[in-house]
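retry 2 of 3: previous attempt timed out while embedding pyridoxal-5'-phosphate. Reduced batch size to 1 and resubmitted. Inputs unchanged:
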Amino acid sequence: MTTTKSEALLARGQRIVPGGVNSPVRAFRGVGGTPRFMAKANGARLTDADGNEYIDYIGSWGPMLLGHRHPEVLAAIEDALTIGTSFGAPTEREIELAEEVQDAVPSMEMIRLVNSGTEATMSALRVARGFTGRDLTIKFEGCYHGHVDSLLVKAGSGMATLGIADTAGVPKAFADTTIALPYNDVPSLEAAFASHGASIAAVILEPVVGNMGCVTPTPAFLEALQALTKKHGALLIFDEVMTGFRVARGGAQQLFNIKPDLSTFGKIIGGGLPIGAYGGRAEIMHRVAPVGNVYQAGTLSGNPLAVSAGLAMLRHIRANTGLYDQLEIKAAALCANPPKGVTVNRVGSMFTFFFTETKVVDYETAKTCDTARFGKFFHHLLANGVYFPPAQFEAAFLSTAHTDADIAHTRAAVHAFFDA
Ligand SMILES: *Cc1c(COP(=O)(O)O)cnc(C)c1O
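retry 2 succeeded.
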């Protein structure tokens, strides 16, 4: 496999862009080797600058539920181009997209569109603080909620891969507003509420974690989250930026039958274009300006291209809800009979091959992984035309564009690594 063009682009990029990439995980620091610069994508396939083809298990880190260049999404973007790409004034389609999200996720009584998942969680936290008049938030170790200052504490994902415990550049006063607890640990949650209950504005979590690799919540943890937030007047925020329209049309909150006070979305709801959304109980969202006194704004928020792509995506999903059953079957086939020495966690079409025999339930257990061996596994797959996430602490994604032949090829490549 030739990678001369990617190597040249990396060298050129590193002179002008930090690490040659616009988001750290793309630099392959977790697995070594040359990051592939992509030239194009179609369906479940990526093609790099040297013309190498890969079966794509990143799906742009989540958005590509329907694969790349889905015809209905492309048509919606083309249609949007004919009317203009940004007005700085409201449009009907923004209302339609909000209604479409609400139809799938009833807890979203009111919704505000923003431009990224980071903006969504940042804004949801601000509203939670404004509504409760409190400053503290609880988050969980290994959960990533975008690069919001106060949430970059034990934040999983790229920081876990790079071994950055706490990022530089966040004032101590901001980090001090965050209490980071182990995921799935009920006693530590109870203890935090016992000592700080009256000051806690919100608990934010990934209701199925993707950003320390795929980790599921226990029923007891979910129950404690609901009971303790309710008892102490704190808000429960589900960060569904990854899980929304991924693990089910109604997100993780549909799977677990929970109505959070606030939720955040991104990724899939933009159909592959930049978007985010936050929302929830009307009483809380009425605090957002111009109705209330919590300020939040965006020059390009609700921009016609992203909204049109997202709308086409969500309409396609509503008309084809059976796609989740098909994804489940394909993902189950891909993950069946995991190789010895590997723990596979999977919820629907998101999954992680953890290189450990320990059951992975939180960040501590995720860290038992042999990341060096994962790096070898990653490069073995890459050489065989399979593009997995280039880091142990990330989830992989299937799309409706993956064929049975793609799954069979991938399984063969996975098992060849362990046979060798
Ligand atoms: C990706 C992600 C974010 C951040 O979204 P961006 O669009 O990258 O800012 C926030 N929360 C979760 C759970 C995510 O997976």
